[in-house]
Write a structure and sequence with these properties.
CATH architecture of the largest domain in chain A: 3-Layer(aba) Sandwich
Oligomer: homodimer
Number of helices of chain A: 11
Radius of gyration of chain A: 18 Å
Number of strands of chain A: 10
Strand order of the largest sheet of chain A: 4-3-1-2-9-10
Helix content of chain A: 40-55%
Largest sheet of chain A: 6 strands, parallel
CATH class of the largest domain in chain A: Alpha Beta
Strand content of chain A: 15-25%
């Protein structure tokens, strides 16, 4: 397989761009095709059958772009449709944010209690707790849904008293459990890192799903001999199913740089 | 036309149930069929062509239920697809939340400045300001998008310090404009009425889109001789395209009573 083929990253919307950002930093030679299903976001309120159908459709699209690796940068799809995606992907390796976050959470042998925060769908799916327990059956996992974090991030209130008060309320029960780390189980949450660090204090380690996914991708590419050695800046493509209001603004906040041209795919 | 036929009320999701609640209170003899397109919510981030297509599809479905009146209990659809809905409805009268809210806002001849709050899509559509200016060209309209109000209502934080602080921040520029009334341009917002009344103070009149729509429906049915005179409790039906997590809880909070059986339509 040609190691210069792009990595395919996909999400139901814009949140996966935090994973793209981490990939750009960790793997600066890799070309990336990002797919955001912005016409059908949010997935979290849809049925499992619908999410599986959408996930298979996106997987097929990215395979058609000749990707060498697939990264599921959407917690809902990772929680619900991981098997369908892997079945469609065949020999192409698949990495997802839940796998990356769970591994990072148990990586330290003295990890202590593990807090997990995410959207209601991700938390109710119990996917993080299940995967963490597979990796370390003795782990104590304390989960908490934080439904307002996504709208607060999209509003841009990243360091706002309202966001701080909301975080204090959501995290109170988790912090009461003597945790050693807190997994950010949603691709929107890395934008809240400075505020969340303040709220949880220095004794708790933040596990950022975006950077842990980039790290896992780097290790996997290396192990499979698929890391690109190309010189010069790699190509980045952004494909979305709709270009909604504020997409550019929010997308660039997530990506930490200009998005450039965004392609719209009409499904 | 048989006056005992039901009223058809539709929304992209669950918010329109505040309008149903107001109809039940104002028109206790009327049967109602509610349609919530919960599989495809939120509409606000979709393109105009898509919203028009969905609105036409729902209109056809409700006409097939033999309704005597259609109520568009969704600000996005009212702002974007009103013409399409009226064209499909033919002779069946159509009432929408924007028409009702705009009329109520200018009803008092000394109405003063008019504040309008809503989702970003509704505010950016400028539909309230346009309709208010048609009714009273001299009206001063001050609009403000409040993106966090819908998630705060769905979280159930109706009387929470976070919601109060958010409202104070959103309403500051509007209240600085010396307004006499504030139009709640989103069907979620009536649940925030007590808190918003506190924040805006006694000098500003709240115009609640749910109760103004029920009032306009009552006047229209009366004028057309279509008011039901049936004795006994009327039939209420709730048809949705998906039954997502927390639908029952949130729906009953909006409706202010038990939802009973919810029918799921598979499109």
């Amino acid at each position: 397989m040609n190691a210069d083929r792009p990595i395919g990253v996909f999400d139901s919307g814009v949140g996966g761009l935090t994973v793209v950002r981490a990939l750009m930093e960790r793997l600066p030679r890799e070309a990336i095709v990002y797919f955001g299903d912005t016409a059908r976001v949010p997935y979290g309120i849809k049925s499992v059958a619908t999410i599986e159908h959408f996930a298979a459709q996106i997987t097929d699209f990215l395979l058609g772009q000749n990707v060498k690796m697939l990264i599921v940068a959407c917690n809902t799809m990772a929680a619900v449709a991981g098997d369908v995606i892997r079945a469609h992907a065949g020999a192409i390796p698949v990495i997802d944010v839940i796998e990356a976050g769970a591994r990072a959470a148990v990586a330290n042998p003295d990890h202590g209690g593990i807090g997990v925060i995410g959207t209601p769908t991700t938390i109710n799916s119990n996917a993080y707790a299940r995967r963490i327990h597979e990796l370390d059956p003795s782990a104590r996992v304390h989960s908490q849904a934080c439904p307002l974090f996504v709208p607060l991030v999209e509003e841009g209130w990243l360091d706002h008293p309202v966001t701080r008060m909301t975080a204090q309320e959501y995290l109170r029960p988790v912090l009461a459990e003597d945790i050693g780390s807190l997994v950010l189980g949603c691709t929107h949450y890395p934008l809240l890192k400075p505020l969340l660090k303040d709220v949880i204090g220095p004794g708790v380690r933040l596990v950022d799903s975006a950077s842990t996914t980039a790290q896992l991708a780097a290790e996997s590419l290396q192990a499979m001999g698929l890391a690109s050695s190309r010189a010069g800046p790699p190509a980045y493509r952004y494909v979305v199913t709709d270009i909604p209001l504020r997409f550019q603004t929010i997308g660039e906040r997530f990506l930490g740089r200009s998005l450039g041209k965004v392609e719209r795919l009409d499904w």
